[in-house]
Amino acid sequence: MAPLFVANGGQRALWLFRLQWRAARTNGRSDIDLLVVDNDDLRYFARLDKYYDELVDLLHRPVDLFVYREAEIEALRDRPFVRRVLAEGKVIFE
Question: What pTM does this model have?
Answer without folding.
Answer: 0.75
